[in-house]
Amino acid sequence: MLTDERYSIILKLLNESGIVKTQDLITELNCSESTIRRDLDHLEQAGFLKRIHGGAKRIYRLDEELTTKEKSLKNIQEKTTIGKFSASLLQENDVIFLDAGTTTLSIIDFIKVGNITVVTNGIEHASLLADYGIDTILLGGKIKFSTKAIVGSTSLSELSNYQFDKAFIGINGIDLEFGCTTPDPEEAAIKKLVLKQSSNNYVVADKTKWNKVNFVKVCELEDVTIITDESDIDLTSFKEKTTILEATS
C-alpha cells in the first residue's frame, strides 16, 4: 500500500472515531508497527493528529465564520441543488422557519406551493420572500452585520410564540463526535429554539460543512435530517446517526 493511501485511511478512521489505536492500524493496514509509528509521526508533524499512548487522537480547528458576501460566492451550484430539493418538501398550508444563511436563501427561488407562511431571521430572505408574494414574518431584534441575521433576546421572545411544520436550518460544521455546530452563540440560540418549536427539522449543508467543528453546539446529529449535495465524502458513518437526504440536480 502506498504511503499516501495509508495516510488517507488513518485520517478517515480518525474522522469517524476521534481516536485510533496503533494495534488496530497494524491490522487494518497490514503493515509493521514501525511503519505505523512513522506514519503517525508524520501526520502529527503536519498538524492532523496528536500522538497519545498506544495510538493517536484527532486534532480539529475551529473554523472562522465568513461573511454573507463571502459565502454567496462559494459552492453556488451545490447550494442551488440543495435549495431546489428542499423546496420540493414543502406542502400547501405549511408554516415553516427559514434560517438566515446563503444555503437557506437558495430555497426561496424554488418555492412553488401556495398558502404557506414563512418565519425568518434573515433580512435578505424576508425581502426576497416579499418579492414573491409569500406571507412572511421577519423576527425583530439585533442585526448581525456579517451574516445579516437577526439575533438576540427580542427575536428569541418572538420565536417562542411560534410553532412550525418544518424548519430549514443552516449550519457551519457537522461532525460525528460534536454534532452540528456554529460559530456564534446568539445564532446558535435561535437555531436551538427553532428545533424545539418545529415538527420536522432539516439542516441544509453542502460538502464543505462535513467533518468541521465550530464554537457552539446546536444539536446532536440524531435531532435532524440533513439535506446535502452529492459529493465524494464518505457519509456511511454519519448515516448510522442521522437521516441524510442527498439532493440531485
Q: What does the model show?
A:
This protein is of the alpha/beta class and 249 residues long. 37% of the residues lie in helices and 26% in strands. It contains 10 helices and 15 strands. The strands form 4 sheets. It has a 7-stranded parallel beta sheet, with helices on both faces. Helix 5 (76-87) packs across helix 6 (102-108). The model has no long low-confidence stretch (mean pLDDT 90).
How would you concisely characterize the structure shown here?
A hairpin with a 4-residue loop joins strand 7 and strand 8. This protein is about 35% helix and about 25% strand.
As a percent range, the share of helical residues equals 25-40%
Structural category is alpha/beta
What amount of the residues lies in strands? Answer: 25-35%
Largest sheet data = 7 strands, parallel
> Counting H and I runs of at least 4 residues, what is the number of helices?
10
Secondary structure tally: strands:
15
What's the overall geometry?
Answer: elongated
- Using the CA coordinates, give the radius of gyration: 20 Å
What string, H for helix and E for strand, traces the elements in order?
A: HEHHEEHHEHEHEEEHEEEHEEEHE
Low-confidence stretches: none
| End-to-end gap | 36 Å
Strand order of the largest sheet: 6-5-4-9-12-14-15
Mean pLDDT: 90
